């Protein structure tokens, strides 16, 4: 029997592991521990660099222009980041779409995956596992093969055929698990005894990668933040990455406040919206339900308490939308020349519901996944 971390001690280690700390103050730098073994809480970076506009590498046209603000690792990069910010007309006025679906594997996940996989390669990991409804798996498959890391991805058997094909095509092993996202995650975690868990839900480096989206928006708006951000939320990785990114800009004195953050969930699975309406400090688990927005079917988000804190502290809200509204939003985006998958249309579907709250505001909506994924 190999020890839990034996295979992580690769001979080609390029950088020391990143220091991690949980909310209760436990610390580690063992990349094999995907959550705190003492209190089961997610890890955070023990020491994250602060945002410094003078440290932006303006010669680099990817998220690595912010390398000085990310944990120090040699990048594994496919050119992720640097996505356009374009105006889109809607009956409520106009919003700015951040075209995250133009990432190398067609979803916003590539920002986070790039930073996670860069770290795994730097510390000598040879095999990584992940559970995913599709996009995170496809993203891991691409970055793992680029990094020379073997990848196994655990997906619910009902996940879209195109997404499963995309994962397998990049050389990763697809393991289909009967049951929902929760079942795939449970089976995947058993494998973390022998392989590193490249989890987009648990690994704090994933959020570091997502924060670069906020920094780009700030640069694209000429050194300003928008008034509001409307974002689909399952685990809420992009939502939290954006909130953390804007918070870093505020600490640096570059924006006056974090934009009002609005979370949008599917009516079929809305633990955050339910807790928000009830005034609870954290979501309680709900059934996964059935929806065309399969990318945000998350019954209990890992950082649910932080999601609710961000809503409260920024003057945001959580709302839910039905599949018919999502389909209508997807059609509207197609009419504007933008093809996105249903999960990505969720935030646009919420704009009519938020009409009063965002009237006259400059609103950014990240469009997270490509419509090519579900053709
Ligand atoms: Zn702990």
Describe the protein in words:
The chain is an alpha/beta fold and 375 residues long. It has a domain at 85-107 and 207-374: 3-Layer(aba) Sandwich (Rossmann fold), CATH 3.40.50. It is 33% helix and 16% strand. It has helices at 109-122, 135-147, 161-169, 181-190, 204-220, 237-251, 271-278, 304-314, 323-335, 342-349, 355-358; strands at 20-21, 27-28, 44-45, 85-90, 93-99, 127-131, 150-156, 173-177, 196-197, 228-232, 260-266, 317-321, 363-367. Strands 4-5-13-10-11-12 form a 6-stranded mixed β-sheet, sandwiched between helices. The N and C termini lie far apart (44 Å). The model is unreliable at 1-7 (pLDDT under 50).
Major sheet: size, sense and barrel closure?
6 strands, mixed
Spans of at least 5 consecutive residues whose pLDDT stays below 50 are 1-7
Mean pLDDT: 94
CATH topology of the domain at 85-107 and 207-374: Rossmann fold
Compute the separation of the termini in Å.
44 Å
The gyration radius over C-alpha positions equals: 19 Å
Order of strands, main sheet, comes to 4-5-13-10-11-12
């Amino acid at each position: 029997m190999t020890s839990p971390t034996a295979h992580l001690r690769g001979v080609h280690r390029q950088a020391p592991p990143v220091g991690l700390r949980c909310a209760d103050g436990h610390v580690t730098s063992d990349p094999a521990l995907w959550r705190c073994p003492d209190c089961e809480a997610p890890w955070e970076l023990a020491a994250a660099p602060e945002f410094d506009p003078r440290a932006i590498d303006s010669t680099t046209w990817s998220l690595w222009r912010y390398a000085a603000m990310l944990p120090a690792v040699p990048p594994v990069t496919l050119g992720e980041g640097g996505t356009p910010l374009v105006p889109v007309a809607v009956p409520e006025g106009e919003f700015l779409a951040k075209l995250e679906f133009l990432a190398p594997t067609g979803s916003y996940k590539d920002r986070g995956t790039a930073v996670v996989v860069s770290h795994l390669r730097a510390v000598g990991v040879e095999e990584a596992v992940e559970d995913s409804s599709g996009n995170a798996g496809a993203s891991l498959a691409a970055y793992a093969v680029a990094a020379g890391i073997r990848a196994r991805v655990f997906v619910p058997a009902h996940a879209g055929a195109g997404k499963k094909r995309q994962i397998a095509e990049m050389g990763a092993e697809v393991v289909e698990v009967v049951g929902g996202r929760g079942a795939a995650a449970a089976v995947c975690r058993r494998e973390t005894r022998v392989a590193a868990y490249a989890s987009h839900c648990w690994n704090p480096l994933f959020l570091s990668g997502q924060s670069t989206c906020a920094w780009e928006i700030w640069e694209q708006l000429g050194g300003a933040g928008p008034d509001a951000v409307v974002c689909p939320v399952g685990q809420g990785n992009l939502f939290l990455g954006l909130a953390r990114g804007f918070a870093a800009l505020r600490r640096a004195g570059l924006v006056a406040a974090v934009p009002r953050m609005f979370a949008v969930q599917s009516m079929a699975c809305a633990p955050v919206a339910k807790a928000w309406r009830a005034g609870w400090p954290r979501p309680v688990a709900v059934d996964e339900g059935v929806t065309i927005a399969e990318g945000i079917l998350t019954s209990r988000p890992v950082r649910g308490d932080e999601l609710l804190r961000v809503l409260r502290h920024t003057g945001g809200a959580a709302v839910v939308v039905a599949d018919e509204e999502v389909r209508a939003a997807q059609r509207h985006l197609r009419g504007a020349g933008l093809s996105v998958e249903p999960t990505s249309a969720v935030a646009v579907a919420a704009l009519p519901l938020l009409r009063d709250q965002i009237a006259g505001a400059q609103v950014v909506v990240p469009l997270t996944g490509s419509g090519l994924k579900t053709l």
